[in-house]
Amino acid sequence: MDTPAEPKQSPLVTLDHVLRGTFLQHDTLARGQIGVPVPMLVRLCLALGLLYGAALGSYAAFRGADQAWLQLVASGVKVPLLFLLTLVVTFPSLYVFAALQRLPLDVRGTLRLLLLAIVVHLAVIASLGPVFAFFAASTKSYAFMVLLNVAFFAVGGVLGFMVLRRATRTMFTTPTPATPTATGTDAEPAPSPSLAHESRHARDGEQARRVLRIWCLVYGVVGAQMGWLLRPFLGAPDLPFSWFRAREDNFFVGVMHALRALFAG
Amino acid sequence: MIALAMERLLRGEAADAPGRRDCVVLGVAGSALLGAALGGSSGQPWLGVFAAIKVPLLLLCSTALCVPSFFVINTLLGLREDFSAACRALLAAQATLGLALGALAPVTVFLTLSVGDPYLLTLFDAVLFAAATWAGHQVLSRHYRPLLQRDARHRYALRAWIVLYAFAGMQLAWVLRPFRGTEGLPVQFLRPEAFEQNAYLVLIEHALRLWQ
Q: For chain B, which residues make up each domain, given as ranges?
């Protein structure tokens, strides 16, 4: 499905439209159109990821970790990479499952919708960046900062998920049918319009929920593990700087370790 | 003029709220007064000066840290048109918080002079801060009423603000210690370990120690 020529907008104006949900109107979504170019969304992902990455890397700088400036750069690069690589890995399956559920978006439309959700996720965590940097400056505990990062990512994820839920609901919502005017006495009694409408609504809602459940499961698990593979984002103060750590355990074991370190000292 | 602004802030609805400058003046003056009372009543004038700077700083910096997220959440909820009204509500609430803190300054001095136990004093400080926060929340609710009538989603933005503000504010208050003098410790603007400890971890440690 071709989208009409989109007027060029500055990144900030586009970000504003993304956050306001301007691109998720029923009339355009139902036609499978999301009027924002992919390169612009990718640029926004890079910029917002860089901002939050810098906040993450500031922990190494404040704690005087080995080659802290390099950690700052590494975190700034790795946060957008985490999102974009997760998208690369999961996009084919996300598209296939969405198409199976008859999501009215083509490949490009699905990509744009997922990028929109990622931009929202990144915008939320970037806006929490000052809070994270403040805690990084005033907290010694590595485990606390790891868990704070996980919590902020989760908050961003929930708000990104809300965007997807809104979009799928909008796409699957059928407009209310007009009340039939002609009623013959000998005609078969037609099912009540409100009942028919309700059942269609329930079916549409179930379809939307199914798409979301599959997307969240696939994207969430891959994203968490991708984050684990790309670590360190913070840079433990007692370890030398490295771009990547050895491949051991998994994200969930890492979170359990951090919780244990926090409560058991 | 300030008295009139104070009356409008405490009694008025959103439409009668005093101007931005008056709100800032009231909030800063009130919180500085409490700071001076907290620090000065322990008999160390410099601590009074430091605390008079730090209490307004606590309110201002906590707000500054949380405003970016508040903006994003409002925009995501489709409440951008009301953002300036929401900010005015926050400003009025902060001004009320500062004003209430200032009004509680004589109580603080009285308690400092009459209660010897430092732990009990800390507990009283917490109660006074909670009372001032309640006052701020009253004005916040009053200012948010027309916004909530216009759009119920303001409730989520307000909750998000309260959670984030409390989360960041508590750590900032911990960083900005001491607000009152402790026997045996020198008068300092910030403790040497100000940027080392985390308020929540200290709380967990205390809770675990009680448990064991």
A: 2-211
